[in-house]
Amino acid sequence: MTQFLGKWNFVSVENLDVFMDSLGTKPEVREFMQNTNPDMEYSQEGDEWVMTIHIPGSTKVTKFKLGEPFDNTTLDGMPVKSTVTLKDNKLSETYSADNGKVDLTREVNGNQLISIAWHNDVKCTWIHNKA
Questions:
Q1: 0.70 exceeded by the pTM?
Q2: What is the arrangement of strands in the sheet containing 90-97, beginning at the earlier edge strand?
Q3: Which domains, from first to last, does the chain contain?
Q4: Alpha-carbon distance 65 to 46, whole Å?
Q5: Does the keyword Phosphoprotein apply (predicted)?
C-alpha cells in the first residue's frame, strides 16, 4: 500500500453532478463541491492509515485500519459507517448512509491516483497526480 503514501494534487472529476444528484446532495453543498479541487494525502501511523483531504478553508482527516469498520463523515458532513480494505493493490471503501451505499475504489496507476465511486448505477471518477 506504500504506493498511496504522499501528496496527490487534484486534476479532474467526471460525472460529479449526476453522482451528487443520485446521492440527493443539497444545492448549496453541490455548488461548493463543483467549485472545489480537493487535494489528498496518505500517511501511516503504525497500523493506522491517515487520509487527509485538503479543500479551500478546511481539511478533513480520516484515520482507519484496514478491514475494520469505523464512523466517518462525508465532505458534506453526512455521518456514514465505512470500511476500507486492500486487495490487488486497490483501496476499496464501502460506506453506508441514509441515502444508500457508496462503493469507492482508489488505485495508483503510474503517477496518478484514480478514485471511482459508485452509488446505485451512477459512477463518478476523480483523478489526482502525485505531487
A1: yes
A2: 58-64, 48-55, 39-45, 6-14, 122-130, 112-119, 100-109, 90-97, 79-87, 70-73
A3: 2-130 (2.40.128.20)
A4: 10
A5: no
Nearest CA-CA partner of 66 in 129, 4, 128, 126: 4
- Please list the pLDDT of the chain residue by residue as tens digits (131 residues): 799 999 999 999 999 999 999 988 888 888 888 888 999 999 999 999 999 999 888 899 999 999 999 999 987 778 899 999 999 999 999 998 877 899 999 999 999 999 999 999 999 999 999 99
Instruction: Identify the burial level of 53 via C-beta atoms within 10 angstroms of its C-beta, where 0-12 means exposed, 13-18 middle and 19 or more buried.
Output: middle
Question: How far, in Å, are 9, 93, 94 from residue 16 at the CA level?
Answer: 17, 18, 18
